[in-house]
Design brief:
The structure holds two protein chains of two kinds.
Chain A: E1 2-5, E2 14-18, E3 29-33, H1 40-48, H2 68-71, E4 74-77, H3 89-99, H4 106-115, H5 131-142, E5 149-153, H6 161-176, E6 180-184, H7 188-194, E7 197-202, E8 205-211, H8 212-216, E9 221-226, H9 232-237, E10 241-242, E11 248-252, H10 256-268, E12 273-278, H11 283-291
Parallel strand pairs in A: 3-6, 3-7, 4-5, 5-6
Antiparallel strand pairs in A: 1-2, 7-8, 9-11, 9-12, 10-11
Chain B: H1 3-17, H2 19-38, E1 39-44, E2 47-53, E3 56-57, E4 63-64, H3 65-68, H4 70-92, H5 95-99, H6 105-109, H7 115-149, H8 155-180, H9 184-202, H10 204-207, H11 215-226, H12 230-241, H13 251-274
Antiparallel strand pairs in B: 1-2, 2-3, 2-4
Classes of the chains: A alpha/beta, B alpha+beta.
Keywords (chain B): Membrane, Transmembrane, Transmembrane helix
InterPro entries (chain A): AAA+_ATPase, ABC_transporter-like_ATP-bd, ABC_transporter-like_CS, P-loop_NTPase
Keywords (chain A): ATP-binding, Nucleotide-binding, Transport
């Protein structure tokens, strides 16, 4: 898919997406990350039919995003949701419910507000809400009608750490219920904790995509920590490389057999194993490692 | 629920929360109350014998009530027409830009409604607002003079409805402007310009000789030919309100012209909105 924003009186438009190709498995929690200007927001808007692609097609839930019946199954929280300040949250949710073609259900709206932590602020006008409370209300609006696909653009923006925990819990509950989650968040730790698949966008293209553990996996490298007093020379001879901390070593092993053989050698030399884990990278490292070569290291998402 | 009605309800709920619209309703109520409480009319055998405003006698010759009230209803019709449209331009200028603002339009477009529902609903909501305000004011006026003078006429109500037709064309232009630029100021400016153009169009025959014969006059005539004759509509509204013969040749054609222009402007807005990225 390609998207070029044409400008009046200019021959050359702004290319936001340059051949984007992405499939999001149903029922997955999918994270979209990338530097500023990578095309994430344009992509999200394309999924919803808010932006029409210059080339290519978008298929969502087996149909076109232009089809209102498809959009009825999507819940969306925009990045900067502008809410009517003079309304109460219940009036807002009732309107969203009606516009989604559903019957107004005051009890269900109250349950949603309670779920996002706004039970105490039901009687207040939205204008008096903090940024975090507005985000929570936006999340509640996105969840009206139990959509099959939740598209959330910075859902925890402005929410305090305790609130983030609650939001994360809600999102994980939704995923467990079978809802497909599409998340765009600049908080990589958030994406890491919620999503099982991630796509990295840079310069309007998907540069990496896959399961989070596959992206974060450090090939065949393992981190091993031994009890103090270990013979570093013997370990080096057995193929271990000294790490940054005391007692920490790294070893390359393509399969469990090779790993256990290396560990057996170390133990034979008197080393006592304390900790073993795959030498994985966090999402930030993965992102930086992916986009840095292009010279586009910036604030993610 | 029909999405158009849903969006219209959205707009009306927004409008109710606006203080200056509430102030306008309070203002109309106050004016009607003042007129009702301060005006005394004495009618004898269907003729206006005496009238007092704030206790001061208004000197006038004895005339039948309907004739005596003609200037009042004519003035009221013009106030409702021009005052109402001007207030509508100011009060409703930011409804569409507000709905199309970043963070709100994305949310609305992601809902299962068609794009045209959004514009049609906004238009409908604003027109319901205009119709409500107009009928409130004109009905109050008819009731006051009906009770005090015993003269009942639907003229001011019809004149009010004609003002709403005029405002519909003006707001169609404003709504179309909002699809091009999300600016309340530019929406209001386009409404004002269109209103002035519509007033000039109504007097095009009289103004035309002021232009030098040739290109300038032809250009003026061509431009004003495209615009609906709002001032003619206002004159017709005044005639109907005061139950006097119509000065325009064909009211039907005049109303049709205004409506066709309004729908044409709306069609341009719908077409622009359908293909626009937000």
């Amino acid at each position: 898919m390609r998207k070029t924003y044409r400008r009046a009186f200019r021959k050359v438009g702004n290319e936001a997406l340059r051949g984007m190709d992405l499939t999001v498995p149903e029922g997955s929690a999918f994270g979209l990350i990338g530097p500023n200007g990578a095309g994430k927001t344009t992509f999200i808007k394309s999924i919803l039919g808010i932006v029409q692609p210059t080339e290519g097609t978008v298929r969502v839930l087996g149909g076109s995003p232009e089809d209102p019946r498809i959009r009825a199954r999507i819940g969306y929280l925009p990045e900067r949701l502008h809410l009517p300040g003079s309304w109460t949250p219940t009036a807002f949710l009732a309107t969203v419910t009606r516009l989604k073609g559903l019957k107004p259900d005051a009890a269900a709206d109250l349950r949603l507000l309670e779920r996002v932590g706004l039970a105490d602020a039901v009687g207040r006008k939205i204008g008096g809400y903090s940024k975090g409370m507005r985000q929570r209300l936006g999340l509640a609006a996105a969840m009206v009608g139990s959509p099959s696909l939740l598209i959330l653009d910075e859902p925890t923006d402005g929410i305090d750490p305790m609130g983030r925990l609650e939001v994360r819990r809600i999102l994980l509950e939704e995923v467990r219920k079978g809802t497909t989650l599409f998340l765009n968040s600049h908080l990589l730790a958030e994406t890491e904790r919620v999503c099982d698949r991630v796509a990295i966008l840079a310069d309007g293209r998907v540069v990496r995509e896959g399961r989070l553990e596959d992206l974060a996996r450090g090939e065949a490298r393992w981190m091993v920590r031994f009890a103090p007093g270990v013979d570093a020379g013997a370990l080096t001879a057995a193929g271990f490389k000294r790490g940054s901390a005391d007692g920490v070593f790294h070893v390359e092993a393509q399969d469990p057999m090779a790993l256990n053989a290396a560990l057996d050698k170390a133990r034979a030399g008197g080393a006592l194993l304390v900790e073993l884990r795959r030498d994985g990278a966090d999402l930030e490292s993965v992102l930086l490692g992916t986009v840095a070569p292009a010279g586009a290291v910036g604030v993610a998402a | 629920m029909n999405p158009v009605l849903g969006i219209a309800g959205y707009v009306l709920r927004e409008a109710v929360a606006r203080k200056f619209i509430l102030a306008f309703v309070v203002g109309i109520t106050l004016v009607l109350s003042v007129v009702a409480l301060s005006l005394r009319i004495e009618v004898v055998d269907g003729a206006l014998a005496a009238s007092r405003l704030f206790g001061e006698e208004l000197r006038a010759s004895i005339r039948s009530v309907d004739v005596a009230l003609r200037p009042v209803y004519t003035a009221a019709a013009f106030i409702v027409f021009y005052g109402g449209i001007l207030f509508g331009i100011v009060a409703c200028s930011d409804f569409a830009p507000s709905l199309l603002s970043p963070g709100r339009i994305e949310h609305l477009l992601a809902l299962p409604i068609q794009r045209w529902h959004l514009l049609a609903g906004t238009f409908l909501g604003v027109m319901v607002l205009a119709l409500g305000g107009t009928l409130y004011g004109t009905t109050g006026l008819v009731l006051i003079f009906g009770v005090k003078a015993g003269y009942w006429t639907a003229g001011p109500l019809i004149a009010g409805l004609m003002a709403c037709v005029g405002f519909a064309a003006v707001y169609a232009v404003m709504l179309t402007t909002a699809t091009l630029v999300r600016s309340a100021a530019l929406c209001a400016a386009s409404g004002f310009l269109f209103l002035i153009g519509g007033v000039i169009a109504g007097f095009r025959q009289q103004i035309s000789p002021a232009f030098e014969e040739g290109l300038s006059r032809s250009t003026f005539e061509a431009v004003t030919l495209m615009l609906p004759r709002l001032s003619s509509l206002a004159v017709a509204a005044g005639n109907i309100a005061s139950s006097t013969p119509l000065e325009v040749n064909s009211l039907g054609m005049l109303l049709l012209g205004v409506l066709v222009f309004g729908f044409g402007a709306l069609a341009v807005g719908f077409w622009r909105f359908e293909g626009k990225d937000y």
